[in-house]
């Protein structure tokens, strides 16, 4: 067993997120583990770009309210205690609602060092549509 001191929280890269998003890394697995875990903090209206994960992703909301949206238009509303799994290769985005901060635990597995494929930003009209 080993105590791992917390890594510093960092601002998420603007080329993958819209709005103010902060990442608090928790764990990056060393072989044979492939687990990558982080707390992700979204300010109101902030969100990821469209993306997918080669081995899927599990999100667990710890506070606030948010959305997880897939390319087929499925919208799942996140509240504290909710967990959502996106299957391998499913393009999706997630973020806070317009009027609330949101924090979720993000769990992915990397595949030879690769854990996500990033696509274009979510447009404001697409973000607004997800709220209706």
Topology overview:
Layout: E1 10-11, E2 17-18, E3 21-28, E4 35-42, E5 47-48, E6 51-52, E7 57-64, E8 66-70, E9 75-78, E10 83-86, E11 92-96, E12 102-109, E13 117-118, H1 124-130
Helix/strand-derived category reads mainly beta
* SSE pattern, N- to C-terminal: EEEEEEEEEEEEEH
Count of helices? Answer: 1
Q: Separation of termini?
A: 47 Å
| Helical coverage, percent range | under 10%
Radius of gyration: 14 Å
- What do the pLDDT scores average to? 95
Strand content: over 45%
- DSSP strand tally: 13
Principal-axis shape equals globular
Biggest beta sheet summary = 6 strands, antiparallel
Tags for this model:
13 strands, 6-stranded antiparallel β-sheet, 5% helix, globular, 132 residues, mainly beta
Please explain how this structure is put together.
The chain is globular, with a radius of gyration of 14 Å. It has a 6-stranded antiparallel β-sheet with strand order 1-3-4-12-7-10, with no helix packed on it. Strands 9-8-11 form a 3-stranded antiparallel β-sheet, with no helix packed on it. The N and C termini lie far apart (47 Å). The chain contains 1 helix and 13 strands. The model has no long low-confidence stretch (mean pLDDT 95). The chain is mostly beta strands and 132 residues long. A hairpin with a 6-residue loop joins strand 3 (21-28) and strand 4 (35-42).
């Amino acid at each position: 067993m080993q105590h791992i001191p917390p890594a510093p929280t960092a601002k998420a890269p603007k080329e993958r997120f819209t709005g103010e998003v902060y990442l608090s890394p928790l764990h990056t697995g060393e072989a044979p583990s492939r687990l990558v875990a982080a707390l992700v903090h979204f300010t109101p209206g902030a969100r990821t770009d469209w993306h997918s994960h080669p081995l899927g992703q599990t999100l667990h909301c710890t506070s606030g309210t948010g959305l997880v949206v897939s390319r087929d238009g499925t919208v799942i509303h996140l509240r504290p205690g909710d967990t959502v799994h996106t299957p391998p290769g499913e393009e999706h985005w997630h973020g806070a609602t317009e009027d609330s901060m949101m924090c979720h635990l993000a769990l992915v597995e990397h595949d030879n060092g690769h854990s996500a494929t990033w696509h274009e930003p979510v447009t404001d009209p697409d973000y607004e549509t997800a709220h209706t």
